[in-house]
Amino acid sequence: MNKRLAMMESGKVNTALLYLGMPTIVGLLMTGFYNFIDSFFVAQLGTAAMGAISIAYPLVTFIPGIGLLFGNGAAAYISELLGAGEKKKAEIVLSSTLFYCVLASVGFQFVLLFLRPLLRAMGASAEVMPYAMDYTGILIVGFLFQIPSICLMNLVRAEGAVALSTWSQIVGSVVNIILDPIFIWPLKMGIVGAAVTDVIGQFISVAILLPYYLRGKSYLTLSVKNIRFQSWFIKPILKTGIPIFTINLFQSLSISAANVVAAPYGDNTIAALGIANRMVGMTTFAITGFSRGYQTFISYNYGARHFDRIKEATRKAYLWAISGGVILAVLQILFAQPIVAAFSRDPAVIKLGIRAMIGASVLFFTYGFQAMAIVYLLCIKYSKSGFVFSISRQGIIYLPILILMERLWMENGIYYAQAVADLITTFVMLVFFVWTRQKRADALREIPAADDGEGKS
């Protein structure tokens, strides 16, 4: 057993959570910061260009979710198998998962054939469409690298190599930030340049991660001979991966729905929503990053049947995630004006952007509880419950709330729909956790190690 696995099994819980969570937080925040800077540069090209990346954002968020579907699902199962001492099975899951992601990245190139009608359906106006076509088309080609990159980041983290995963994100993001203004202005590529630098960054991430396996530095071996199409590992991967994927899916749908609902109010409103989504998305990365580290820890100790460590880690995860959410929400509200003003000189966009920022931030702290709760349910095999809650915040609860609030309060209703959805989602989850407390405790004692069965939810 290597040192990273030993730390997850017997090291201090605080230390293990910080070791697994902090690098992932840093890496995702760096990615979010790049998205923030990228939006800042594109915003200097005008409101139409900013509107284009706002329209493209749901699609750009959704398709890489395929990397999370396989990568995150496989990472959780690999950690569980390692906890149970099943190294050979873990290597089969590793090799097969990466192969599936490569196939998916190629398959999604067919989206290019339907890009214009798709963007039109997502709310692109005639003025925004040329920018959206140029920007999104190049990013879709970049998914050839982005989907495998996201998958690899999760896979290396499964065996505790979180620093490498983070390093690949940081290097890719730094390269993007350096090249962005060069490609946009000196090379006179405009919004196309912003998309090209993103593709370059994703390629660099893959170039950093893949040698970890090819040069034999990993605990697990990546091999073509280990590729399988077998239900014994596909089923548990999908049970964990699909809820994570649906979070991305409904995040994309919710942003796209908000853009469509906001379209009658003009491009200024869509640009304002885009600014708020980028900023709140970056702070969401902080919570998501910690949840990834928490997931690795819980999955490993679930496989090893160390349920006391799971309980201790869960208590700390809730406390830290909720506290972090409060701090981030306060900062977003206090600095809403300068943040929005950095993206646009248009007074109308600034005014609307501040409203959108405040609306998205006022109950943001609840996201910390929601994220940890979903990961916990998935890791203890409450797959059905985890799935339902994963589609609640920005899906089955948010979408009807969005439509209702827009009809009642028009533009302001769009800005505050997420806050109302957060409140309702959190209340429902709290009721569920109180109601099933004893049942979940009994289930933890009964389920054998590395079980891939369904929780009794």
Mean pLDDT: 91
User: Are there runs of 5+ residues with pLDDT below 50, and where?
Assistant: 449-457
Structural class: mainly alpha
Q: How would you characterize the largest beta sheet?
A: none
In terms of DSSP E residues, the strand content is under 5%
Number of helices: 19
Number of domains: 1
Question: Helix and strand layout, with pairings?
Answer:
Blueprint: H1 3-10, H2 13-43, H3 47-62, H4 65-83, H5 87-107, H6 115-121, H7 129-158, H8 162-184, H9 191-214, H10 231-262, H11 267-303, H12 307-334, H13 336-343, H14 347-361, H15 366-379, H16 383-390, H17 392-396, H18 398-435, H19 437-446
Helix pairs in contact: 2-8, 2-11, 3-7, 3-10, 3-11, 4-5, 4-7, 4-10, 4-11, 5-7, 6-7, 7-8, 7-9, 8-9, 10-11, 10-16, 10-18, 11-12, 11-14, 11-15, 12-14, 12-15, 13-14, 14-18, 15-16, 15-18
Structure write-up:
- The chain has one domain.
- With 457 residues, it is mostly helical.
Using brief descriptors, characterize the structure shown.
457 residues; mainly alpha; 19 helices; globular; disordered C terminus
Summarize the structure.
The chain has 19 helices and no strands. The protein is an all-alpha fold and 457 residues long. Helix 10 packs across helix 18, helix 11 packs parallel to helix 14 and helix 11 crosses helix 15.
